Amino acid sequence: METLFKNNPIAMNVFPKTLMLLGSGELGKEFAIAGKRLGCEIIACDRYPNAPAMQIADQSEVFDMSDNGLLQKIIRKYQPDAVVPEIEALAVNALKELEDEGLTIIPTANATAITMNRDKIRNLSSQELGISTAQYAYASSSNELEEVAPKIGFPVFIKPVMSSSGKGQSLVLNKNDLKEAWSTAIDCSRGKSGKVIVEEFIEFNLEITLLTIRQKDGTTLFCPPIGHKQTNGDYQSSWQPAELKDELLEEAKKIAKIITEHLGGVGLFGVEFFISKDKVVFSELSPRPHDTGLVTIISQNLNEFELHLRAILGLPIPEITLISPSASRVILAKDTYTSVRYIGIEKALSISNTNILIFGKKSCKRNRRMGVCLAKGKNIKEACHRADEAAKLIQVTSK
């Protein structure tokens, strides 16, 4: 078959660039906005029509991105300068074949394949790179889970090996809840995996995301650490900067650099850690902007999406500056609606130094993330309070 990408121009200082997004949710939408501001052409792909990024993209495609043949067909149709995955459930073999022909995959096809599954990134970090993680094991059936979990010791987390935004994970206190945790994990799993990860519960003081940027010249940059809170593995709030000892931050940077250098490629990575007393424990990694990093839209001179874009295009990043202590709080749907509207935005915006992002999702299920409130303050406490109060004032209702 004729190859189309041998002279891929992504490294050339010529604009506009054509970027294809695989996944077009709220994070993809913000990346698309950053791309449009620099004159890029954006092709937004997802499994459902009118996804958030599609609403501002130049062109869009709706198809099953886990289908090897379909994915190759759509990419060849547009011949983009780079493909930017924004979700986990992708036909990674198709990406590898196209990368071998010269197409730029962000960060790389191999990094996409490793990080789409918790088992692969966990095995890489703990077994190959010798990085400290929680104790873990795997189970491929409900019966096997009942054998494995007591060996780790209760309480344990049960997680699908592949999911989005932490969906499908359960904290299990005793063996009586294992069957339900198995069903929850499998039902929420992305792709075709029938395996779960059984993970030690770690008592931690703080959970952080360290946004790590790999540039074309090989250098690595870091954003100030972001603290965050989750419920059932799904992000609820975040703040920047997170307060931790200098030596712990340096250890987190060291670990993040080891992992991202091993994965290779360019772009921004969201690297998650547990900070447990005086110990840094690696948790997870996303090779793309992170939901907890939405706070950077208000907190930094360059937000995580602009940093991702600049790294991809080989553009300078002279400095990353924290503007103000800042926080985010998600806006959740409380019920299921086939069409939605929002009440209370004017009240929320009456709070000083507060902004709102409505993602543009046309329907919702209970607890679906529909937007986020962002706020600045003279300190983290004030910023968090403002973001929380703004989110309480907004209701998602049926049209």
**Helix count, per DSSP?**
12
Please identify, by name, the CATH architecture of the largest domain: 2-Layer Sandwich
Pick out the low-confidence regions: none
Major β-sheet annotation: 9 strands, antiparallel
Find the count of extended strands (DSSP E, 2+ residues).
Answer: 20
CATH fold descriptor of the largest domain: D-amino Acid Aminotransferase, Chain A, domain 1
Explain what the structure shows.
With 399 residues, this protein is an alpha+beta fold. It has 3 domains: 97 residues, Rossmann fold, CATH 3.40.50; 66 residues, ATP-grasp fold, A domain (Dna Ligase, domain 1), CATH 3.30.1490; 193 residues, ATP-grasp fold, B domain (D-amino Acid Aminotransferase, Chain A, domain 1), CATH 3.30.470.20. 30% of the residues lie in helices and 27% in strands. The strands form 4 sheets. Strands 10, 11, 12, 13, 14, 15, 16, 18 and 19 form a 9-stranded antiparallel beta sheet that branches. Strands 3-2-1-4-5 form a 5-stranded parallel beta sheet, with helices on both faces. The protein has a 4-stranded antiparallel beta sheet with strand order 6-9-7-8. Helix 1 links the parallel strand 1 and strand 2. The chain starts with 17 loop residues before the first strand and ends with a strand.
